[in-house]
Amino acid sequence: MVGMRDVAKAAGVSLSTVSLVVNNTGYVSADMRAKVESAMRQLNYIPNELARNLYRNRTNTIGVIMPTIAHPFFSTLTAHLQREFAARDLKTLLCSTADTDKGESEYIDMLQRHMMDGIIMAAHTEHPADYWTSIHRPIVAFDRTLGEGVPVVRSDHEQGGRLIARQLIDSGARHVVLVGGPRSQFAEGTTFPTIRYHLTVERLLAEAGIACDYVEAGTVADIAAHEATACAIFEQYPDVDAIVGSDVVASVALQEASRRGIEVPADLQVIAYDGTLMAETAGKRLTAIRQDFPAIAAALAVRMDSQIAADGGPASPSKNDSASNVDTQPTPEEVIPVALIPGETTR
Amino acid sequence: MVGMRDVAKAAGVSLSTVSLVVNNTGYVSADMRAKVESAMRQLNYIPNELARNLYRNRTNTIGVIMPTIAHPFFSTLTAHLQREFAARDLKTLLCSTADTDKGESEYIDMLQRHMMDGIIMAAHTEHPADYWTSIHRPIVAFDRTLGEGVPVVRSDHEQGGRLIARQLIDSGARHVVLVGGPRSQFAEGTTFPTIRYHLTVERLLAEAGIACDYVEAGTVADIAAHEATACAIFEQYPDVDAIVGSDVVASVALQEASRRGIEVPADLQVIAYDGTLMAETAGKRLTAIRQDFPAIAAALAVRMDSQIAADGGPASPSKNDSASNVDTQPTPEEVIPVALIPGETTR
DNA sequence: CTGAAAGCGCTTACAG
DNA sequence: CTGAAAGCGCTTACAG
Fold first, then answer.
1. What is the spatial distance between Cα A345 and Cα A244, in angstroms, rounded to a whole number?
2. Which residues of A are less than 8 Å from B102 in CB distance?
3. Distance in angstroms, CA of B66 to C1' of C3?
4. Which Pfam families match (chains A, B) (predicted)?
């Protein structure tokens, strides 16, 4: 491997001069620069990023922790995140928990060992808040509360709930089935804000006197379970006339309705929550609550910027129980609006 | 940051002893080990991976170059790749060209700068073969030929074509429309083997005297174009009675057929090529040629293993025009069988 | 403006 | 079995 030393020797200059040229830093006379550049070309010199990484204690890599990239929600989110990061010269490392049998802890470990500069946390976690707040490295949460000092970006699920409820009420729905994650996630103080749309829908429908049942699908990574759940709805609630669930659930429910000869939207309305590509490729264009992926990704990246800036900032005075390198402002929570995109599956 | 030096000092031993304990290498007496371990715990020592990376000239990271992770084909492939890599303690770096406006060259550059140990190349490329063969670092191609010394793993698209043709012939199709990438990719010596299934289908249908038209969809990353194309088919070929395209194209075509009141599969058959989750969430379960993602990922990972082993191997004798660190056996091409999964969209 | 030196935090021969 | 030393390939104060 040809290194800076070789270039320096060939150009007849010192190591530091080569470094200055490579990094385009400081002042180097024109002919020095020329000599170095020609030597670099001659030798086909390529700087080794690992050495820089060590010196700077940075990898310019952000990990994205999520259940599985195979789920359209996360692949869409990740695509947008990658765009934001790339614009900042940051790389995107895939950290799927379901695709690898690695838990979040292993990825956090990698963060601690400086294999990444920060982490976007978008998977469910069972860790108590003090686990997350004790990490003292750049973390930004997507759609879940991890404790003081960990900024959160999420969609406005209450608004999503209101939009769904209004649609259902206005169109005269009478028996709504909501499909979502395990009901245990609804506990007070849950880290999992997604379910707020369910709570909002339930409340508003109750006020309007509309029947509303909740059906548990498996966890987000268990896509087969979603399919089974969607089909089972029709057995369990033969008079259902509206189904609300993720894009996957909604698509499969729509397919099953068609199989049973149920008219959509006349006899059954279907609303998808997420609004990924899959909402457009189902049997009909699904009416969907669309999460604003570009805005979410942009907000996450901005938060990450400041977490990283704080991390690189003034070293903490070594009393590691009281001080942190990372921003500990009262947890900022940024809420991104959603929109109801009318499709062919609602009246 | 607490480093090995601090641990050594606290434990009253030398740096190397700490290193031996951390890496669990060589022989360390029990009480030495105990002292070191307690010091590590005390100080909450976490090894800095960057230093190791520099020494070993390795990052244990594989980049996956693809058009966009938002496309179900690539998100599925990537999920499986990540599983294989994780089992080998390798991380997966996302390298989407369409999601970042970065070309493959930028990712290859990162490979050269040792920011990754290897690359899986699964995007289309306009570079001539000598570009790829001149890189001399671990690269494994998925479904495209990049030149001597770059191993290829691909699905058996000829078999896929035969399965499709047989299905269409046996079911009495009379006017088939094939949807695929730009026809220019069909040139002799193309780097893009995917289109072989189109060629096979065309040939077999011609032999059977069945009409077959080819319609160009946009590039794989341009999903909106796929949707438009699928709809346009019905205008352009009113008597079409079978459509073959990617999962996305097939799903949208099926949706459009339903909108037009066309009976599937009685009056129109639809076959999806890929067999991702999306083939299951369309209006009906799509009959699909399923690419064997687990097998593909496994094969890619095995090839990557040996490319990396060769890369770390004996240094080339510095005559960089004749020798390479990387395996230059006659290009191995591994062909993975596909399967036709019957669904509700064929007769 | 340029060069010699120290150092990023670890690992690994090599003596003892 | 343990320690002192050199080194991974670069960067950045610091003298000249």
1. 11
2. 86
3. 45
4. LacI, Peripla_BP_1
Residue of A nearest to B58 (CA): A50
Of B79, B91, B94, the CB nearest to A70: B79
Q: pLDDT digits over A106-130, tens only?
A: 999 999 999 999 999 999 888 888 8
Do A59-154+294-332 and A4-47 fall under one CATH topology?
no
Q: How far is CA B313 from CA A1, A51, A144, B137, B152, in A?
A: 13, 21, 46, 12, 21
State what percent of residues in chain B have pLDDT above 90. Answer: 72
Minimal C-alpha gap between A213 and chain B (Å): 23
- Fold (topology level) of B157-291: Rossmann fold (3.40.50)
pLDDT, tens digit, 9 for 90 and up, residues A246-273: 999 999 999 999 999 999 999 999 999 9
**Proximity of residue A112 CB to strand C below 7 A:** no
What CATH number does the domain located at A157-292 have?
Answer: 3.40.50.2300
Which residues 161-220 of B are in CB contact (within 8 Å) with A? none
Contact B222, B201 (CB under 8 A): no
Whether A69 and B53 lie within 8 Å, measured CB to CB: no
B257 within 8 A of B264, measured Cβ to Cβ: yes
Strand C close to B25 by CB, under 7 A: yes
Which is nearest to A291 in space by CA: A76, A20, A95?
A76
Question: Could you tell me which CATH class the domain B4-47 is placed in?
Answer: mainly alpha
Quick one: tokens of B208?
């059977």
The model's pTM is 0.93
**Is residue B48's beta carbon less than 7 angstroms from any atom in nucleic acid strand C?**
yes
Classify domain B59-154+294-315+332-337 at the CATH class level.
alpha beta
| Separation in Å, CA of A60 to nearest CA in chain B | 10
Q: Where are the domains of chain A?
A: 4-47, 59-154+294-332, 157-292
SS3 content of chain A, % helix, strand, coil (to 5): 45, 15, 40
Identify which of A68, A91, A227 has the shortest CB distance to residue B280.
A227
Nucleotide nearest to B2 (CA to C1'): C9
CATH architecture of A59-154+294-332: 3-Layer(aba) Sandwich (3.40)
